[in-house]
Design goal:
Mean pLDDT of chain B: 73
Strand content of chain A: over 45%
Number of domains of chain B: 2
Mean pLDDT of chain A: 83
Low-confidence stretches of chain A: 1-26, 30-43
Number of helices of chain B: 9
Strand content of chain B: under 5%
Helix content of chain B: over 70%
Low-confidence stretches of chain B: 75-101, 115-123
Radius of gyration of chain A: 23 Å
Largest interface: B-C, 62 and 66 residues
Chains: A mainly beta (310), B mainly alpha (207), C mainly alpha (210)
Helix content of chain A: under 10%
Radius of gyration of chain B: 30 Å
Number of strands of chain B: 0
Distance between the termini of chain B: 79 Å
Oligomer: heterotrimer
Order of helices and strands of chain A: EEEEEEEHEEEEEEEEEEEEEEEEEEE
Shape of chain A: elongated
Number of strands of chain A: 26
Strand order of the largest sheet of chain A: 1-6-7-3-9-11-13-15-17-19-25-21-24-23
Structural class of chain A: mainly beta
Chain lengths: 310, 207, 210
């Protein structure tokens, strides 16, 4: 039995901020149409498709608990959402502001019906056209972002995060203790913060790559290309960096209590602030390779830092 | 005047008006007349375009961080206060509604951050206040998250333990090496990790 | 577990200019490092600054970085604002300079900004002589116009945005860009011609029912 579509009272009053006068050319009405997709009383795998019309530069927000979220580049102008639900105790809400600058896809559990984790999960497969910024937030659902460029913000408590094949983008990732894997991403501002989740970056380069964990191991395999700024830091987890001989880096590594070593053929240089002597011996080094184009900072409180040749 | 000659001076005609020859040609030549009309129309319509786009919340978050780190923001430091600079936005999760717990949690996180940033001469009272706020806030956070999903609650509990250990280590290092930029940076990093945990927790709510 | 659905507006940015706080007061307080005043000024002007940056660079990530930089520069320099011009004008000019500086940095040092932005020959608009066509009438759909502007080659787009959208005069543009007034006028004309091509093509596509 299909649930009839329900229309909720519109909570959105549209864009905030300026009180400029609107002209005929620009939308004055901010109606915010609300579309609710209801799950049918199926046993498993009930797939519903919906489409959102968003303008270039719009922001799409996706919120999910359990299940999965998979984002990939779309070939159409619309955002195409395929949502698979597994019970009728969960709904998928989608909405777009009248001026099409914001869209949302939100998993809404009907908590009065006390859904189990299995009941409440939703699997999303979302095709995103270029020019749309994306924000994804899940609790346990793993998130995969493939081939999507632009402004991407991804956070999950315990769901694994994988981001592949992006370029000239901004990628922000946060996790409590899930693993984060980023591969084949170039020309991108990358920012990753996790508490316990390990972070692995493979062939990742950008104007800026920053990874900070509390206890999550950081592994970087690549060439730190592009004349960018790379910063990897942990509290007590190991940091392993594997560079090819052709890497052009200016590297500084330092740990308060952990060991720092390298078998990479750097040209050593002296650093005024923390010369690797005395108390810092074995806990710091700095050196350049080739023309030292990219700056690389490796820091830990007590995590072991190692730099190796690929 | 022929079409080629008219188009040489067309930009001037559109923006500043033409001469008699130009006007005469425009009146008699459908193609040039349409061209001039279209270009004027485009210019006029463009002038009516209004700013319609807002940047994402991360822009303000980044600005805030820079303002704080550059010392452009001054908080009120009255005796007995922790010199809190009210930037609840800093820990506000993007596109989320605040629950009352969320507000408390965020305020506790901001308090901790502000204590680190603004106390130049740490006082026992200030440290105690910060630690109390921290422990109490942590417990509330864990209990709230666990109600919704015990497994996720455990993950937060474990992470909070680790982050608190990081903060303790970093505080000790900063105290032992006062003036060392590296130690200060680590302490900032540790608190930012804590703020991240609070921010992500505040995005969850249970019934 | 229920995920909190956002209530009310989609962003959590505080309402700008708190009750009883005028822009002038916010500026004064910001000069003294008042956090709330900074936030208020941001909220009031963010849309215009961001829209300007976005229209000039046609890339959301870049535009956000530039918006961030513009506001940071504003806050660093706010103590020097004496009220000789409107605050919004001052901020606007600062934002344009931030964008132009960014574009200069992107180009090779020995290439000037207008040279770097000069479109290649195939991007140049075609001359339109002796071929009457359907006129653009009525209001041009804003979305189509914005898209068309986005698709302009960078050199044309910047001049077009500065002149026709933002209202700068050619002498001001020439000064900002380090080019001649003639160059500014020529680029503007080419930008409009290019837009006309694009908009007519879009309309023809629509009419053809594609």
């Amino acid at each position: 039995m299909k649930w009839p579509p329900r229309v909720r009272p519109n909570k959105h009053t549209g864009l905030q901020g300026d009180t400029n006068k609107m002209t005929k050319l620009n939308s004055t009405a901010v109606i915010g149409a609300l579309v609710i997709m209801s799950a049918s009383m199926a046993v498993a795998g009930n797939v519903k498709q919906s489409r959102l019309n968003l303008n270039p530069g719009a922001v799409l927000t996706i919120v999910n608990g359990g299940g999965s979220v998979s984002l990939h580049a779309g070939t159409e102008q619309q955002v195409v959402i395929n949502a698979t639900t597994y019970s009728d105790k969960v709904e998928v809400d989608t909405r777009v502001t009248a001026d099409r600058t914001r869209g949302e896809v939100i998993t809404h559990t009907l908590s009065q019906q006390r859904p189990s984790a299995e009941d409440a999960k939703v699997d999303y497969d979302i095709a995103v056209p270029s020019g749309i910024s994306v924000i994804v937030n899940t609790s346990t659902a793993p998130i995969t972002v493939e081939g999507v460029s632009g402004d991407i913000t991804v956070s999950s408590d315990t769901g694994q995060i994988v981001a592949r094949r992006a370029s000239k983008s901004h990628l922000h990732v946060r996790s409590i203790n899930a693993s984060v894997e980023i591969a084949d991403v170039n020309g991108t501002h990358v920012e990753v913060t996790t508490a316990g989740g390990p972070v692995r970056l493979t062939r990742v380069s950008g104007p800026s790559v920053e990874v900070s964990t509390t206890t999550g191991k950081i592994t970087y395999i690549g060439d730190c290309a592009g004349g960018g700024k790379y910063k990897l830091s942990t509290h007590n987890a190991p940091i392993d960096v594997f560079l090819p001989e052709t890497a052009s880096v200016d590297m500084e590594a330092r740990s308060s209590e952990g060991s720092v070593d390298s078998d990479f053929p750097f040209t050593k240089k002296d650093h005024e602030s923390y010369p690797p002597t005395g108390a810092n011996q074995g806990r710091a080094f700095s050196g350049t390779s080739n023309s030292g184009l990219s700056s690389v900072d490796l820091r830990s409180y007590s995590g072991r830092i190692r730099v190796k040749k690929q | 005047m022929n079409c080629e000659q008219l188009q040489e001076i067309l930009p001037h005609v559109i923006d500043e008006g033409g001469n008699a020859d130009a006007d005469a040609h425009l009146a008699s030549c459908a193609s040039c007349g349409e061209l001039a009309h279209d270009l004027k129309h485009i210019a006029t319509q463009a002038g009516l375009l209004l700013p319609m786009h807002d940047p994402s919340p991360r822009v303000w978050n980044n600005i805030q961080q820079s303002l704080v780190s550059e010392g452009l923001i001054r908080g009120g430091r009255t005796p007995g206060s922790a010199g809190v600079t009210a930037f609840p936005q800093r820990v506000a999760p993007p596109h989320r509604a605040w629950t009352p717990l969320g507000s408390f949690i965020a305020a506790a996180a901001v308090l901790l951050l502000a204590v680190v940033l603004f106390r130049y001469t740490p006082s026992a009272a200030g440290t105690q206040a910060a630690n109390q706020a921290s422990a109490s806030g942590d417990q509330q956070l864990i209990s709230r998250i666990s109600k919704g999903d015990p497994a996720v609650g455990k993950a937060y509990e474990e992470s909070l333990k680790q982050v608190n250990s990081y903060i303790a280590d970093a505080e000790k290092a900063a105290k032992d090496n006062s003036g060392d930029a590296f130690a200060s940076e680590q302490l900032m990093d540790a608190y930012q990790h804590k703020a991240m945990l609070y921010e992500m927790a505040a995005a969850r709510s249970t019934e | 577990m229920k995920i909190a659905a956002p209530k009310g507006k989609l962003t959590q940015v505080k309402k700008v200019i708190a009750p009883g706080l005028s822009e002038a007061e916010a500026i004064d307080r910001a000069k003294n490092g008042d956090a709330e005043a900074f936030e208020a000024l941001y909220g009031l002007h963010k849309r215009r600054v961001y829209s300007l940056c976005l229209r000039m660079v046609s890339n959301t990530s870049e535009a956000e970085d530039l918006t961030q930089e513009a506001f940071l520069q504003l806050y660093r320099k706010i103590s020097t604002f004496r009220g000789e011009s409107a605050f919004s004008t001052w901020l606007h000019r600062l934002s344009v300079n931030v964008v132009l500086m960014h574009l200069r940095k992107k180009s090779l040092p020995e290439v000037s900004l207008d040279e770097m932005l000069e479109p290649v020959q195939e991007d140049a608009p075609k001359k339109d002589i002796g071929s009457p066509d359907t006129t653009l009438t009525g209001s041009i759909d804003r979305v189509n116009l914005e898209r068309a502007i986005e698709d302009l080659p960078p050199g044309y787009r910047i001049i077009f945005v500065l002149h026709d959208i933002e209202g700068y005069e050619h002498n001001e543009i020439a000064e900002m860009m380090g080019c001649s007034i003639g160059n500014s006028k020529s680029q503007l004309h080419k930008a409009r011609m290019k837009l006309r091509e694009h908009l007519k093509f879009s309309r023809a596509e629509k009419t053809a029912g594609r």
